Amino acid sequence: MTTPANLRLSPCGSAKRALAGATVGFFIGFGGVSLFGPTAHSFVQAMKLDPTRVGFLVAIPMLTGSLLRIPFGAWVDRNGGKLPFLTLLLASLVGIAGLWYMLLALYPDRLTPEHYPLLLLFGALGGCGIASFSVGIGQVSYWFPKAEQGRALAIYAGLGNTSPGLVAIVLPLIIAAGGLWFGYLISVGIVIAGIVLYAVLGFNAPFFQLRAGGLSVEEASAKAKELGQELFPAGSMTRTLLESAARWRTWALVALYFTSFGGFLALTAWLPTFWTDFYATPHWATIALTAGFSLLASVIRVPGGSLSDRVGGERVAAASYTVLLIGAALMSFSSRLGWTVGGEFLVAVGMGVANAAVFKLVPLYVPDAVGGAAGWVGGLGALGGFAVPPVLGAIAQSMGTVGYARGYIVYIGLALVSLLLTAVLYLGRNRSAR
Question: What pTM was estimated for this model as a whole?
């Protein structure tokens, strides 16, 4: 048994084990991105929802999942991450369980438009697990040396990001076999299993364990340095948020992440509606195209992180936003399925690699307040997942069927702004180094 006295000398866990725990926890929590996307068509039929309301429905998990990243990311700088991680996963469990019970009692005959606010409420709770991203970013960053953070964070985020793609494949199959309520019941069981696994694997970095064991800040820092820890928190939650917010580069990174990760969240939720309503694709094709986008953008984040370690985050970001721009142009103006699919996968590559590049830059630009910076970047950046789908829905509603394609002009604009900001970051760092 590990007592406080033993902990003073020997913190539990390792960097690899902590990475595994954070990845499992984020994988489970991030499933909330697809809470409504694969099932939106069922709600449309039962509740007679228009495209704008569908846009808000599929986006609502991203609202709480984005905004909560800010305080919970900063909370990592205070206690290391395990408690905020578990808090978010438990809140997500409450939301998904509420959806399951609601559907069990009401779907389909008694589910009416009057229940729309209740769906939004449970969706907002279910999305809390998405906020675990910024918690895991801080937790993993404190475990790994700076030279290895790009790869470690890319593994964490890349593998964790595969969750929506897998949900997009598996959830419709489960629903087809047992009904809509059964799909959410299985989701409840998976979240419970994920909470247990994270509780076992998700250790805080040595500094935070040593502080919890009774050592002073100075003693814990010295001992943690001996154990290989390189990053240390700036202080309180308020201080780490304020210090990171005072850096202009934090806000440039927020904007970059709004395009890449917020855009990824938005498309993961919106693509099932797009493929069904614009191209009238068969159900299996809709699932495959949505899951393919999500999985590609997630998996490619891992080599994107390694590439960022080697050649620099700004250069990789510039290349990836260029690829995103080309893909968005294809999706906006093509009326041929093949060209649109090609555009979708270019967008996936651009977003996935850009996500890795941006978080390679977070510890570089804000090394003494990583948790606070991760909260701002991950939280406000991920708001794209909430903000963009209603815009896409409104364009589709105002322009008719062609609006489903023309809405992707939004991503052309975001990509251009991101390229400009990337250039500003790169030039600014070179000047400060002279």
Answer: 0.77
